[in-house]
Amino acid sequence: MARTTIELRIKRQDTPTAAPYWEEFSMPWRANMNVISCLMEIRKRPVTRAGQKTTPIAWDASCLEEVCGSCTMLVNGKPCQSCTQLVDKLPDAPIVLEPLTKFPIVRDLQVDRTRMFEGLKQVKAWIAIDGTHDLGPGPRVSESEREIAYAFSRCMTCGCCMEVCPQFNDRSDFIGPAPLAQVRLFNAHPTGHMNARERLESIMGRGGLSECGNAQNCVEVCPKEIPLTEAFGELGRQTTGLWLKKLFGG
Ligand code: SF4
Ligand code: SF4
Ligand code: FES
Questions:
Q1: For the segment 31-87, what is each residue's pLDDT rounded down to a tens digit?
Q2: Whether 210 and 229 share a structural domain
Q3: 88 and 151 both lie in a single domain
Q4: What's the rounded Cα separation, in Å, for the pair 68 and 50?
Q5: 37 CA distance to ligand 2 centroid (A)?
Q6: Could you give the CA distance from residue 69 to residue 177 in angstroms, rounded to a whole number?
Q7: What region holds the 4Fe-4S ferredoxin-type domain (predicted)?
């Protein structure tokens, strides 16, 4: 039978330290609804399925087109972007929404992903420039290199890969898959290559590349299909090369 109502079960938490609790909601089905449109419906009328008034759900979103990554949450236990997760692609059963578990909770479905951005700072995930004056066209990049760079440039820091990585947790210093992959991107850039050694050094110590257990969960969930494990293989070659160079005084 076709779906006529949408049921949601949402894990809520009022403050970063408060105890979590669950609330259930129900709303009429409409074609092409995604998870965020359901949350917007609840915001218009924050009343639970049992008819009790409650507070609107807090969640993050910005682009609404799977570019910013900020709306990432667990939908039926799987990390994904709530802005593009269509209700009709989910089983006709209560849809369970939870915040990501690897980042501190701010409120309800909002999490604080600072740790991932600190990782990007640690690896200098940018191209250094010495001014904004016109430097003319940059060095030519081959088509094959451009293709690889494009794949890695699609990372939207959504955190799905960090969520499923067994090595990334609050008991480890592991920097996690997303920042590591950006080392691969920026070291391949003709200008970014000037800082390649610094980037490699930043992942050669504690919490770096060697803490990846190669479980490959990350590559399976990345919504942008970024070849994360290929990046780790290439970074392994680059860090070994640098280690040998240093061994011989380079
Ligand atoms: S390969 Fe496994 S351990 Fe390494 S970053 Fe990916 S999920 Fe984590
Ligand atoms: S690598 Fe993929 S899963 Fe990880 S943060 Fe970037 S886009 Fe998200
Ligand atoms: S709101 Fe930007 S990815 Fe969903």
A1: 999 999 999 999 999 999 999 999 999 999 999 999 999 999 999 999 999 999 999
A2: yes
A3: no
A4: 35
A5: 23
A6: 15
A7: 146-177
Q: Which atom of ligand 2 is nearest to the CA of 156?
A: 7
Cα gap 39→73, rounded to integer Å: 12
pLDDT (tens digit per residue) in 103-122: 999 999 999 999 999 999 99
Cβ 193 under 6 angstroms from ligand 2:
no
Shared domain for 11 and 104, answered yes or no, is yes
List alpha helices for 25-176, DSSP H: 35-44, 114-122, 143-153, 160-164
User: Residue 3 C-alpha to ligand 3 middle, in angstroms?
Assistant: 26
Residues 118 and 239 grouped into a single domain: yes
Residue 27: φ, ψ to 5°: -155, 160
Whether 103 and 118 map to the same domain: the answer is no
Kindly report the protein residue whose alpha carbon is nearest to atom 7 of ligand 2.
Answer: 155
* Global pTM value: 0.94
CA distance 250 to 233: 23
Q: Which residue has the tokens 């257990």?
A: 213
- For residue 27, the cross-strand partners are 6
Write out the two tokens for 142.
């081959």
Identify whether residues 68 and 118 lie together within a single domain: no
Q: Decide if pLDDT at 1 tops 80.
A: no
**Residue 188's CATH number:** 1.10.1060.10
Least confident of 51-60, 128-137, 146-155, 212-221: 128-137
Short-list 171, 179, 167, 244, CA closest to 210: 167
